[in-house]
Amino acid sequence: MRLSGRDVYFLSGTDEHGQSTHPFSHVRVNFARPLGGLLLQKVEKTAAEKGLAPKDFVDEVSLSFRELLDLLNISNDYFIRTTDEDHMKAVQEEELTMKEPNHVLYHC
User: Fold this and answer.
1) How far apart are CA 29 and CA 42, in angstroms?
2) How far apart are CA 37 and CA 41, in angstroms?
């Protein structure tokens, strides 16, 4: 869309929810993936299969995605990782909001 001259804000990133690497892994709200509980353990399992700590594994995956964007000449305004401090803070704030009276939470 940028190539056509449009003003865009492109956000890209990696979803690194894994029980050992993500401090909010107990938050089971995942609207994009109905099997979220099963996928949360995938990071740990795959990291173990590769002989890596979960954090080291997601670091490698994140780097691979950034390199792929560069290879494809795709620019993005912000690359977010679910293990980033700002993302974790936002999740924590949202979790507090969900605990407020009269807040409706839908589990998928």
Assistant:
1) 16
2) 7
